[in-house]
Specification:
about 15% helix, Immunoglobulin-like, 2 domains, about 140 residues, alpha+beta, five-stranded antiparallel β-sheet, four-stranded antiparallel β-sheet
Length: about 140
Amino acid sequence: MNRKLEGIEPIIAVVILVAVTLVLAIAVVGWIMGWWGATAGPTESLKITPINATNVNNNTATMYLYVCNTGTAKANITSVIVSGIGQGTIQNNYVEVSPGECKTIQVTFQTNFTSGRAYDVIVSTAAGNSYKTVVRAE
């Protein structure tokens, strides 16, 4: 009983390899371009424009930020942290920015800013996102 083992035809093997390669390439391109992330639901996206940062008195400084939500979900700003200074107090403890809405937020710090110095500012939201900007003190 001599049985000859045979594999698949070379042309069928090539067609299968090309099809698998195309599926993987489409998956990778979709992941890179964010096509799959678009179906994840609404997301917040904040654009932050610094207005100013000024000293109020010897122990208090105030910063104003103009925040626009260009995303599709509500953003709740929960903290504003300035490098070298620490966390500030947001008026009303948090600020809610609806999609398409822009607001000016006021943040108070229990210290003074150095006039003319640029400060890195990190704005955090309840969704766990952080947005960075730079504010120059007056």
